[in-house]
Amino acid sequence: MATFASLPLRGALPPDLGVQNHTSPAAATATPSFKPTFASLPLSVQTWAVQMVVFHAVGLLFELMDRLHLFPSTKVRRTRKSQYTHLLPTVLRNQILLLLPSMYACELAGLAFVGGSLHPLRFLANLPLMALGHEIVQYCGHRYLLHAPSVWLMQLLRHSVHHSTRASSAISACYMSAVDFFIEIVCPYLLPLAAVGGGGGGAAFHFLVAGAGAVGGLYEHSGYDFATLFRPAFENVGEKPLSPAEKEAAYKQIEEEERGPIRKFVTAWLADFLDNRAHLEHHTRGYVSFSDGFGSPGILDTLLRTRWDLSERRRADVEREWARQRQ
Ligand SMILES: [Zn+2]
Ligand SMILES: [Zn+2]
């Protein structure tokens, strides 16, 4: 693995380096000292560092919420005791020994993190393209490799390590075997990044993508579903399913109780945006929702009919399972 000492430094050297000092012979013979700063590190390393800070700060926040039993009505999946210290060593191994070298290798190969800053329009266009590319790579690897019905592949890739966490602790987002981490985390991040041209050499785009990815992964594995605060109660997991007629009457009543179109729109948008059920369902049933549950367009799950709530039969199964787990 490359060490920081061997990494090429970004930016111009200080202007006094290499300039002979004519007024002081002693100074002229002294070895110039250059202290590397954060900004002088390769952009891939800076991005990785930012992602680590975001991931572990937000991960600790979720852990604190677990330990202090905050927002109990939104914690839809629990474990009897904290998994944090058990998960952390594997998470750090994956992030340090796999993610960091892969990102740096992309920069060295000129595939990403190089060039000038992105034009604002390119910056904006790259974000949905990255989301779509991420979904395609993740869906294919996750469904057709990690969940392939092949015993030898299952033994080789050991996706069961990740599923053993049941998505009830935020940092379990990166708790997986090394090869699983490469398929589920490294490739869906770096392949689309290279495909959209590498994201340029400006820090803002990379920090945003890496930081948002970290928060999304943590949330969808946290066992919290903040959408429960905005969703009609009968739509929440664990509630007794209503018949279609009862549902229609309940929606009508809600509509009548709404105080205005803006509130109605905001509530519906938040319930949709924060909906965290897809990946939680995937951890319960391996045959649904192979895309990321949060922040993913979910296009392939919809097109290929693997979305968790797409079929009534699937949904009925899932709702029965949720009700059983919450007893
Ligand atoms: Zn997961
Ligand atoms: Zn899986």
From TrEMBL:
Domain Fatty acid hydroxylase per the UniProt entry, residue ranges: 129-226
Keywords for this protein: Membrane, Transmembrane, Transmembrane helix
GO terms, molecular function: iron ion binding; oxidoreductase activity
InterPro entries named among the record's database cross-references: Fatty_acid_hydroxylase (IPR006694), Sterol_Desaturase_Related (IPR050307)
GO term, biological process aspect, one: lipid biosynthetic process
TM segment ranges: none
GO CC annotations on file: membrane
Entry protein name: Fatty acid hydroxylase domain-containing protein
